[in-house]
Amino acid sequence: MERIHVSVRARPLSVEDAQSSPWRISGNSIFIPNHYSKFEFDRIFDEKCGTRQVYEARTRDIVAAAVQGFNGTVFAYGQTNSGKTHTMRGSAAELGVIPLSVQDLFETIQKESDREFLLRMSYMEIYNEEINDLLAPEHRKLQIHENPERGIFVAGLREEIVVSPEQVLDLMEFGEAHRHIGETNMNLHSSRSHTIFRMIIESRDRTGDDEAGTICDAIRVSVLNLVDLAGSERAAKTGAEGIRLKEGSHINKSLMTLGTVIKKLSEGAESQGGHVPYRDSKLTRILQPALGGNSNTAIICNITLAQVHADETKSSLQFASRAIRITNFAHVNEILTDAALLKRQKKEIEELRAKLQGSHSEHLEEEILSLRNTLLQTELERERIALELEEEKKAKAEDKRRLKEQARKIENLSTMVLYSSRNECQDIIQKDRRRETWCPGVLLNKTTGKALAASEVVSLSPMKSVRPKRNTGPLIQFKELIQDTESCLDPSLKRDEEVSVRALGGSNLPNPSALMHVTNRRKAVVKQKSSTQVKHNTRCAIQRYILARIVSDIHIDCLVRKLAETTKVCHLKQEDFTESPTEQEAHNMPKQLKDQEEVLSTMVEFSSDVKDILMELQATKAYFDEIFSMMDELFHLPSTVSNTLMVSSGVKEICCHYLLEFYVSQ
Ligand SMILES: Nc1ncnc2c1ncn2[C@@H]1O[C@H](COP(=O)(O)OP(=O)(O)OP(=O)(O)O)[C@@H](O)[C@H]1O
Known about the structure:
Bound molecules: adenosine-5'-triphosphate
Distance between the termini: 107 Å
């Protein structure tokens, strides 16, 4: 990144002009005493300085950089008759910047033994906003194009290959002959066009063996522009009319665009994404790379210190002071052909291979170590996961075993309860029934051990005491209980219930999870029990259920047997009547008949009692059937639903529990 180099060159003055000049030069500053304007530049050359000095200030370096592959641009700017052409082209007495550059260029190339060069030259003018080829005068009105390979270029412009400074200068002379020069009041040989002298420098490395492929085919291409601008002018001063006036207008217009571009660039418009009007003139478009682009650029601002041109000088100095703030980004321009690219890559590979071989074993060892570490870590991780899996498997197996064990225990317990209940209850009930109701001649008094009389037997037959009724409050309807339970459920259970209902496909069956909270009596809000509690309750419920069933069966059995015995007694009595009774027997007959009457009445009463019990049992059975059918529906659901139901474990048991509670309460 480099700033545009700006130098100021003041042309010699006549004695009169020198005396009246308001300008003063001090070092690199120029100013008018007692005036606010003071301009500072990289270099200021007074009228005594020669062109070589001006050239050496910066242009020489730019030429040297161009040989190395950097673009370079030097242009002379200033009002008409300020000495631009004198500075750039020079004269017979004093060489200008262009011839000096050409000489230097060839000299520098001669010194560059490692590279081989190809130089081309072009010379063009921008006259009235038209580009004319000065080396091929027939090539007029050339167009400007741009492409990625060449950048901005003038299509059709002749480029002459040159091999010596003399050849260049000859061609330049040829071009000058076709340049538009006109006479004005201010300059007998006024340039009426901007001229751009261009050297295109191509070079490539010629060290190494081409056959061995060690030569790098990268080609450096740089462009050196040496520009002699037409001078800004005032028609009043130049007295331009007609064609001159038109020329002057175009000159001023393009210079104004140049001024705008310089101003914009100096304000940082391009870096801030602002618009820079390069395309507003052919001059700025061609010089675009030189202005804020890929180029080393220098501006030589030609001025006259005469009093009469103070305003124009001030204007030129303002332009130059803006240009000094512009920075460019010059870099070596290298073109790589496919072959060159391949060669370069081969070279890089070879270099890398050499480096690799140097540190080969060490590098491999490190790599192996790193790989081993990674492998070890992976192995450890794998073992850890396998252990975890094994433990998990064991835990699962243990859970399974525990569950099986519990199921087996429950089964055993149920069986035990079944048998013990049956035996116990049967004995008790049978004893009770016989003692209290039947067998007047056979039964013994519990306390005395004596046989009981029939009247005693009858008096001891309160059948209803066999089924003492529990006053546990009124029975609540099953559906009502479920409704109650719903209101007690917590939201999570309600959600479960909703899922179940959906799974049931809109069935009206109660949600099994709701059954977990069902009791046959109104109670306080039941909290959700733990699974252990539920299991425990379930076990008790099953036992109670089985017990109750057994009791019921025995009850019925007893009643049936009683009936049979009663019938038998009646038969016996009838048989007794048919035989001729003895006197004693005749004497006892009324009492026996009375007893028999009592027995019969008891039997009748008992029969009605049996009837009641049977009816009640039938009702209970119907109730059971209803519940069981509901349970069957529940347990024959699709697998998706049964999965949901499985969540509420022990549903069936809970139903049994409810049924048992209901039954027991009866
Ligand atoms: N430094 C100088 N030393 C000697 N003579 C000079 C110097 N500068 C300019 N001149 C003379 O001044 C006259 C005008 O100079 P020149 O043509 O170079 O001006 P210009 O800026 O190119 O004008 P224009 O813009 O009209 O072309 C020429 O005769 C030139 O020889």
